[in-house]
Amino acid sequence: MTYLYIILPLILIFIFSFFRILREYERAVVFTLGRFTGVKGPGLIILVPVIQQMVRVQLRTIVMPIPEQDVISKDNVSVQVSAVVYFRVIDPEKAIIQVEDYFEAINQLSQTTLRAVLGQHDLDEMLAERTKLNTHIQQILDEQTGAWGVKVTVVEIKRIDLNENMVRAIAKQAEAERERRAKVIHADGELQASHKLLEAAQVLSAQPQALQLRYLQTLANIAEEKNSTIVFPIPIELLSAFKRT
Predict the structure, then answer these.
(1) Cβ proximity of 18 and 11 under 8 Å
(2) What is the DSSP string of 64-105?
(3) pTM for the complete prediction?
(4) How far is Cα 214 from Cα 219, in angstroms, rounded to an integer?
(5) Does residue 243 register a pLDDT over 70?
(6) Beta bridge partners of 62
């Protein structure tokens, strides 16, 4: 009976060592005597101890932050850029066999790709065209990681930090741009007003009665102000008459 109490637990432990339970989002890459024999899961799977080993792989989307990278833009501006990458394993076999550590490999590849892509663009493009740059980086990463059985779904640039001198320079540039737009708008208004005045002068010169009515209207406007001094406009016709004499 003493031996039975010792052997029975060992037998139970040995039997239970055949079983593994995998969650819905997990897969087991199984190796038999060191050779790949298949992907199993989810649920209950059976493995022969010592003969077979398994490596768990998650199929859920993984969020991997990219640490800040020092980037030199195309117009020689130094910025610090951070981003985040979303990816998931779509082929557990390739993710385990084709690359030593797919997580670290994607992390390093993301850093180098981020620097390479942003270095081909000016600072203004980095700030104004983030969506385009995100898509470009995502396509490059997805193409590279496809051989590892990994799908890169989203790449988002989180922050683009500038030094204080560059921030002040950009503020001055924005202020100068606003002043330029204000001057252009003012000049356009003056041009449109001159066209309208020309049209009004042409109408008044074609009808002398209209000019007289305008003269009387001006006197009425002056009288409404109750000024102590009233300046009477001299009709242009009178001056032209003196000129002829």
Answers:
(1) no
(2) EEEEEEEEE-TTS-EEEEEEEEEEEES-HHHHHHT-S-HHHH
(3) 0.68
(4) 9
(5) no
(6) 87
